[in-house]
Amino acid sequence: MFALVRTWAGWANLALWNPTQILLNPVNDLRIGKLTKKDAGGVKYEFIALEDGTSSTEVKTAVKLSVSLTARYQDLRVAVVMLSLVILPAIAVAGRSACSPLVAYAALNATLNELLLHMFEPAPIDVELTNILGNKPWMEKFIDTSEEYERFGDDTMFRRTTGFNGELAFNVSIDDDNPPNVLLIGVESFRYRDSRYLVGEEDPSNLFKGTNLTITPNFDRWAKRGVAMRNIWSSYPTSRSLESVLFAQVPYHSNTQTGITGGSEQIKLSGLPQLFSAKGYETYFTTGSSLDFDAWDIFLPSHGYDYVWDSEAMAIMAEESLNISPEDWLGDEARGFGWGVHDDLSFQLLGDFLLKKRSEKIEKTAQGETKKPMFITHYTISSHAPFGSFPRWYDEAEKPDFSAMYQGEMYADRIARYLQVRYFTDTELGKFMDRMEKEGILNDTIVVIFGDHGQAPEIVNLNLHEESVTRVPAAIIAEGRLGDAVGLVINDVAEQYDLLNTLADITGLPNGGFQQNGVGRSLKRKATDKRVVFSNDPLRKMAIVRGQQRLRYDEVTESMMLHDTELDFHMTTDLLPFLTPEERAEWEALREDGRSITAYYKKRWDENCLLAVQCNT
């Protein structure tokens, strides 16, 4: 009975239930984290003063800016936790035990087609990768031909990258004697469909509903001054996309945890922080968000970042240098919210820091010291769901009329809130970039802007709108360094895991090359038409994108569907029935590649052998 209900009613899909949606927006629980500095002795807590002449002081106690919750709200949270973590799982397990594998699978995670087409639940995929390229090792299938490397073994992605070759898609001028800073800006819940510049005026899927609107005029304006990527994909959620951004991996595949969960202090990794450390850069991670979620506060300083700022550090600096009072965080001014410090303040403080560091470096250079550039990763937070908090000044400010984008929609109020907060973060991004241009910071800084993942406020269970959630915008801004490439829009398929090789190709490799185990390619080089990327959501589907076609499939079943990402954004027409047997077989082979490389990385995370030729087991 449960299986039949599941196949006819989407609300019965337990894999997509989220009982916490009944909770109030946690605006009264502002958790302010900490700034950390990593040294040879481990991780310690230290405040970096922004004001000249102010010495660093050790932060011995966490700043707790919170308002007591009512007893009723506490009881509600306890009830929700019990419901979601104990009662519902117990019911599901009991139902699963009483049913055949086919019935249970259909009830919990299958479509009607799968229920009718499959007599038995398939066995899990084989994680062993074999020599699928004839006499060549399997790993060469997943490493782009533009990368020059030394293999450490025939059964591992672990290798030493020694260079890059191939026809250029664009070039960035770099002076090896004066290396630029590199700034990555990860924008929370930033989806491709919000950028009119990337969607294009034709808008073939009518994402802007016949209007001439853009939700992100400042991103669009700066993307036009750089090199934009309009066909780049992510994984979901943020912790999984971070694995791709920093370490060029197909992220850990699980619907209960990520590779980062718990901090993963013992896991050996090599990615962007290690690359730039080897090149003599100082490495920073900055955000207005609390970082205790998924133990980022442990993971980041343990895996290559010399300095980590979170919401606590931002709050301390804002109070000391921007005249923000403790009452402003959760009071009428709303300078903070449940996730941390709003983006206007975090961008202001990041800009102040860049200016201060430049002044220090000018003084040190005058004294004969060698310039030490910075690699900074900055993540925004204000546009995190449920999109219910803005600073008071922005709430009262005049804003564009986006009503045409949500009128008549079932969840019009939530869409409206999303568009407002998306425009807010875009406004602050524009202010930051304009200020950095005016101050000359962009003359010696390469900036990469990207969405950490997408969003789908149009529905309750966002995972159902797969392209909205996993297709993101991106742009590389390198003022005075791009030559004729200014304004280039790259349509080649890409993934966040391409950033490692792209930045290594742009800025150069350290002496002796760079050890890594990534699956990305350099976007600085032209791609082939056959290139594919892997973009997975464990709570929904796995996916492969080639060109403008996207194959969605399951981890174990034969079910798969093919859609056109440009003409059919909402996935209404399955293209598989129109393929020849040979074309279908090609996609089926790619599906097996996707399963295999995903399983490879999960196994390597589980056994802590990402940077090893062989695992112990």
From TrEMBL:
Q: Which residues form the Sulfatase N-terminal domain?
A: 180-508
Q: What InterPro entries is this protein classified in?
A: Alkaline_phosphatase_core_sf, GAG_Ulvan_Degrading_Sulfatases, Sulfatase_N
Q: Name the coiled-coil region(s).
A: none
Q: Which domain of life is it from?
A: Eukaryota
Q: Which Pfam families match?
A: Sulfatase
Task: Return the protein name.
Answer: Sulfatase N-terminal domain-containing protein
Task: Please report the organism this UniProt entry assigns to the protein.
Answer: Phytophthora nicotianae (strain INRA-310) (Phytophthora parasitica)
